[in-house]
């Protein structure tokens, strides 16, 4: 994978923080290795309590593919650009999970292009369900969590996959 990602925050983000509420960030992502890739808008919502899921960070997320000007759409929705990064690494699937292993590349302020990650840059891992999961009796959320934890066991010793709240 090699993706460009732009992070937006609501225009009143500081007011929300001052009120004790963390604003919901909107992210625009475009895969650079696919010539006809479209922008994808997505957002991670507040993580569920560590008491409920101590072994992994569980958070709802919403996504939508945009045809046309995704960056302008974010602006019309009341968001302003906060930052931009590039993510370079690997994406693979295991069952219903999509696993991303990547390093963040910063952006050269003059050219807007990615600056290759330093050899010592830490690798990040994101594990998501490939399709939305509703917590029902037929498909309990615990099934997806068990699948994520199975990936963690497979990578034990290769990566430190302890929960980190960001």
In short:
Keywords: Activator, Nucleus, Transcription, Transcription regulation. This protein is α+β, with helices and mostly antiparallel strands.
Overall tally of domains = 1
Q: Within the CATH hierarchy, at the fold level, what is the topology?
A: Hypothetical Protein Pfu-838710-001
CATH architecture: Beta Barrel
Relative helix content: 10-25%
The CATH fourth-level homologous superfamily? Hypothetical Protein Pfu-838710-001
Q: Can you put this structure into words, describing what you see?
A:
With 166 residues, the protein is of the alpha+beta class. It has a single domain (2-154), classed as Hypothetical Protein Pfu-838710-001 (Beta Barrel), CATH 2.40.320.10. Helices cover 16% and strands 37% of the residues. Strands 1, 2, 3, 4, 5, 6, 7 and 8 form an eight-stranded antiparallel beta sheet that branches. A hairpin with a 7-residue loop joins strand 2 (26-31) and strand 3. The two termini are 22 Å apart.
Give the tags.
166 residues; alpha+beta; Hypothetical Protein Pfu-838710-001; eight-stranded antiparallel beta sheet; 8 strands
């Amino acid at each position: 994978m090699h993706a460009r990602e732009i992070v937006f925050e609501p225009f009143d983000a500081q007011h929300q923080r001052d009120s004790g509420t963390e604003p919901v960030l909107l992210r625009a992502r475009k895969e650079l290795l696919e010539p006809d890739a479209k922008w994808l808008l997505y957002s991670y919502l507040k993580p569920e309590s560590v008491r409920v899921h101590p072994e992994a960070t569980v958070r709802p997320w919403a996504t939508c593919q945009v045809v046309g000007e995704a960056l302008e759409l974010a602006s019309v929705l009341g968001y302003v650009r906060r930052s931009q990064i590039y993510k370079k690494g690997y994406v693979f699937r295991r069952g219903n999970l999509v696993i991303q292993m990547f390093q963040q590349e910063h952006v050269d302020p003059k050219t807007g292009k990615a600056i290759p990650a330093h050899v010592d840059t830490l690798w990040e891992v994101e594990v998501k369900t490939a399709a939305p999961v509703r917590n029902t009796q037929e498909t309990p959320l615990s099934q997806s969590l068990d699948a994520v934890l199975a990936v963690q066991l497979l990578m034990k010793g290769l990566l430190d996959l302890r929960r980190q709240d960001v």
